[in-house]
Structure formats: C-alpha cells, structure tokens
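Take a look at the protein record below and flag anything odd:
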Amino acid sequence: MSSMSTAAPAKSLYERLGGVYAIATVVDDFIDRIMVDPRLNSNPLVDEAHHRVSPAGFKYLVTEMSCWATGGPQQYSGRSMHESHAHLQITAPEWAAFMEDLDATFDKFSVPQPERQEFIAIIESTKPDIVLPVTT
C-alpha cells in the first residue's frame, strides 16, 4: 500500500462561488445596478445600449460567461468583449465605476476575498478589449 496521500482536487472558482444559481443571483443584482448607474449612463452610447438590450437577455449572457470563465460547464455563446464594447467608447473612469458597482454587489452577497480577487482578475483581463486606450 502506498504511503502517498491523495488530496481532493481543488474546487474551481465556479464551485467555490456556489455554481450557476449563486452566480446568476449575483449577476442579476449587478446588472440591475449598472443599468441605472448615472456614471455609466452619462456616456450616451452606453445609455443607449442599456435601453436597447433586454435586461433578461443581458443577464443571461453575463451569467453564461461568468460560469464559463470560472470553470463551470457552460459555454459562452455571446460576442467577443471587443466586438460587444468597442463602439461604446468606454473610458477608464467608466470602467472604475463599473468595478465599484461590482464591488458593491460582492459586498451585498458577502463574496469571500479569495473568490472576489480571482473573479476580479478575470474581469480585469477583459479591460483591454472594453476600455478605450489612453492617448497621450
């Protein structure tokens, strides 16, 4: 008999966040929050997009992407982040407001720091495809 112990495989971020139902609940609050944030809607292109898309459909795609990106079984079926956002001309201050809204949602649901930081790293990895490049 081997003396090596077999440790249980580490749980994915998806599992640590509670799976699709927990992620969908957080996404629901987050999308409701960003859709009415005046800091985001002061950009007329973002405001128009927020009123053009179905909140339910938007929540579905964000939930699907969040589950996929965190290691869940879902497959993201939406457009690329660049394709979805380039025409919106999102600025760095708007990105900061978006991230503050995410933080407020995480606070509301008491998302633990390790999972919060791991999820934020995933979101931050999309920033170059979403935010206008800084010009000097």
Observations:
- Residues 37 and 57 are 19 Å apart (CA to CA).
